[in-house]
Every structure is written in structure tokens, then in C-alpha cells.
Write a structure and sequence with these properties.
By secondary structure, this protein is α+β, with helices and mostly antiparallel strands. It contains 12 helices and 12 strands. The protein is elongated, with a radius of gyration of 29 Å. Bound molecules: adenosine-5'-diphosphate.
């Protein structure tokens, strides 16, 4: 096979952009730029093989028909194959799991001069000799003037072990939070009994201290609930109990409840929806509550909050607007990540939180096939909105 100088350069940049590739760019550049044999001549194939052999990640070279032209040492080792039984066969023959292979093959066949690569395609494959594997795949088509000699470089990262560890960690967190719930509920019940007892004895000091303990237990309970939600969101176990719901009513009820608890803000409602929507009512209420808590918490010097409901492009949009300090541009995407809190001067005196509320809200909205976003101007306030399908 013949590689042009351009093709070699493309290969080099592809191979070196692979994060875990251990081949030093220096070695590659030396070989490509200074080794005259590689740079200019036709017997480059062996050199390319040598280069991909030195890479720790499995790499395949395919032709346009997806026949394997070459497989590096890492590939042969990880997939427990011999060169003879690998080179020359079609990619499809590597695995038993045809629907999954079908997906990869479709993507590979779509590669063209205009869209010549894809990255981080996660696939779960069942291999004949090594069983189930989760892999991240990068592919890059390298084109020549003569179309028939186009090749595809496939680099594969086996993330089976990483996935397993993540799963174990999530399961552990799920288990611990679940197990902690029972003693906390029982302790709360005992505290209530004691509170009742001391109301009768009139022991003010004990009443005061028990109220403190009850408050802390409540806080712990809320923390555990947040962790449970995060765990469910991460493991895709956020089951929805969908039912037909009047969003106008849900908003009215929730706003009324908040209006009782806040003495600082007036919450108004704008807009109305003329149809029912199919949602998990309690989870969407949770999202709205979260946005209202934040709107109140992060705008202590303002007096107004507006909840808006309208329909747009066959979607229902619910927004909560506050007139607080706003969120700096560079933090506007990050606040939806786990544990992120803005550390700006304009927010430093506000109530403590875990930075989980918006993450959980995003996952709930996503489970409804909707989106949650923010528009905010520093000094003017923020509007958090989420969309839901309108039926
Ligand atoms: P928490 O409020 O517990 O910190 P959230 O996930 O609800 O967690 O919010 C993440 C961060 O986003 C907050 O710490 C705060 O810095 C910022 N934020 C959220 N809502 C608002 C708002 N309405 N106005 C200004 N900042 C906000």
C-alpha cells in the first residue's frame, strides 16, 4: 500500500491526538519529518505499522470496504487475536453482536471527504473470545487522489474496567444512602416523642436542644435525598410516573405554598396553558421548587419573582425570573454540573448549598425529553427556563 506525504501527516495528527497514546510526538515527528524513507518514498507501509505498533491503544487500519489491512500489537493483545486471523477479514467478522456492529459500520460507511472522522463513539460489543467490552472508538478516513486507496484508521479504547468501577461506585453510594435512611427516620420519630414529652414537662432547654437535633436530622435527610436523586440520574434509574397534568394548577399550588413561606418576595404568575401535559407531576414540581428556592436565595435584595408559562414551537416553556445579581457568563454552563457553585464576590454571602439542585433538575427535565437553561445578565437578574413536550 502507498501512503502520500499528506496522508502520513494526517495519520500523525490523528494518532497523536489520541489521549492515551503513549507514542511520543517527538518520535513521530522525527520519523515523519527526518526519515527520508517515510517522508518521500513508497515503501511506507512498514513504517506506519511500526508507528501504530508502538501505540498502547488498539489501532486498526481498514480499507474502504472495511476489510482489516493492519492491526497493531495492542489490538492483537487486548482482543487475543493473531495477525494472520485478523488481517484480511471484514470488521463485521470480529464480533457476534451484529446490531451493535451494524451501528459502527453505518457510521464508518458514512465517512467521506467532507466528514472524515468521528470521535468517542461508545459501543458495547460482545466478542467471541473475550466477552462483553465497552469501548470508545475514534475513526478517521484518510483520502487520496485515487479514491480506491482511501483508508480508515480506527483507534479503540477499552473502557470496560472504568465503566465497572463507575458502576460499583454508584452502587456503593446508592447502597449507603439507602441504608442511612432507616436510622434517620427512626431517630426523627424518637425525637418527636421526646419533644412531645418535654412539651408536657415544660423543660425549655431540652425543647430547644431537641429542636436543634430535629433540624440537623432534617438537613441530613435532605442531603441523602439529593444523593439518591444524583445516583438515580447517573444510573439512568430516574423512573417517571407520568400522568396527565394541568401545569397551571401545579404552578399555582406551588407558588401559593412559597408565598406563605417568604416574607421578602412577591411571586407572580404570567401566562396560561390551555391543554394538559403528560409529566411526572411531583418531579416537575421538584424542578419548579428548586428554581424558586434559588430565585429567592440568590436575590435577597430584590422583591419580585415572576413565573412564566407559554407554548413555543410545540413545546411548553416554564420560566422563573429573578432580579438578583445574575450569573457571570463563564459560569452559566457550569452551574448545571454537579457540585458547582459560583464563587463570585456578588454571591459570596449567600446561603450555603451543595451545588446539586440544578444538576438534579436538569436530569429530571432531560428524562422528560426537555431542556433546562439560563439567561442571565450580571447586575440585572436571571431567568431559568425549561421545556417539556406539549402533549
Ligand atoms: P446550590 O444552590 O445548592 O448551590 P444549585 O445547583 O441549585 O446548587 O445552584 C448552583 C449554583 O448556581 C449556585 O451555587 C449559585 O451560585 C448559582 N445559581 C443558581 N440559581 C441562581 C440564581 N437564580 N441567581 C444567581 N445564581 C444562581
Amino acid at each position: 500500500m502507498i501512503y502520500t506525504r499528506r496522508a502520513l501527516k494526517e495519520m500523525k495528527s490523528f494518532l497523536t491526538s489520541e489521549p492515551a497514546a503513549t507514542l511520543s510526538p517527538w518520535v513521530i515527528s522525527r520519523r515523519l519529518l527526518y526519515d527520508d524513507k517515510i517522508a518521500g518514498r513508497v515503501e511506507q507501509y512498514n513504517h506506519i505499522e511500526a508507528i501504530i505498533d508502538a501505540i498502547h491503544e488498539p489501532v486498526l487500519i481498514l480499507d474502504k470496504e472495511l476489510t482489516i489491512q493492519s492491526a497493531n500489537k495492542a489490538f492483537l493483545k487486548i482482543f487475543r487475536r493473531t495477525k494472520e486471523k485478523t488481517c484480511g477479514i471484514n470488521l463485521e467478522e470480529l464480533t457476534d453482536d451484529s446490531p451493535q456492529v451494524g451501528n459502527l459500520i453505518k457510521k464508518l460507511k458514512k465517512l467521506s471527504r467532507n466528514k472524515s472522522y468521528f470521535e468517542e463513539l461508545e459501543l458495547n460489543y460482545k466478542f467471541k473470545n473475550i466477552g462483553n467490552r465497552t469501548m470508545l472508538i475514534n475513526a478517521k478516513q484518510i483520502s487520496y487522489d485515487n479514491k480506491n486507496s482511501d483508508i480508515i484508521l480506527l483507534s479503540i479504547r477499552d473502557i470496560t474496567q472504568r465503566k465497572l468501577i463507575e458502576q460499583q461506585k454508584d452502587d456503593f453510594v446508592g447502597y449507603v444512602t439507602h441504608e442511612l435512611k432507616t436510622p434517620i427516620t427512626t431517630s426523627s420519630a424518637f425525637i418527636q416523642l421526646l419533644q412531645g414529652y418535654h412539651e408536657k414537662t415544660g423543660d425549655k432547654k431540652s425543647q430547644f436542644l431537641l429542636a436543634k437535633v430535629a433540624g440537623e436530622l432534617e438537613r441530613l435527610n435532605k442531603l441523602l435525598n439529593s444523593f439518591t436523586h444524583v445516583y438515580k440520574a447517573q444510573t439512568g434509574k430516574l423512573d417517571l410516573n407520568k400522568e396527565s397534568c394541568d401545569l397551571n394548577e401545579l404552578i399555582r399550588e406551588t407558588v401559593e405554598m412559597f408565598q406563605y413561606t417568604t416574607t421578602t418576595h412577591t411571586i407572580s404568575i404570567e401566562g396560561e396553558l390551555k391543554k394538559l401535559v403528560s409529566i411526572d407531576k411531583e418531579r416537575i414540581r421538584q424542578v419548579l421548587i428548586n428554581l424558586l428556592i434559588n430565585a429567592i436565595k440568590y436575590s435577597p435584595d430584590a422583591e419580585t419573582i415572576v413565573v412564566m408559562l407559554h407554548e413555543e414551537n410545540k413545546k411548553v416553556i416554564l420560566s422563573v425570573q429573578d432580579f438578583g445579581p445574575g450569573i457571570p457568563k463563564d459560569a452559566q454552563l457550569k452551574i448545571f454540573e454537579r457540585f458547582f457553585r459560583v464563587k463570585e464576590d456578588n454571591q459570596k454571602n449567600y446561603a450555603k448549598g451543595l451545588g446539586l439542585g440544578l444538576y438534579i433538575a436538569t436530569e429530571i427535565v432531560r428524562a422528560h425529553k426537555g431542556k433546562l437553561w439560563v439567561e442571565s445578565t450580571v447586575g440585572k437578574g436571571s431567568t431559568f427556563s425549561f421545556s417539556l413536550p406539549n402533549s
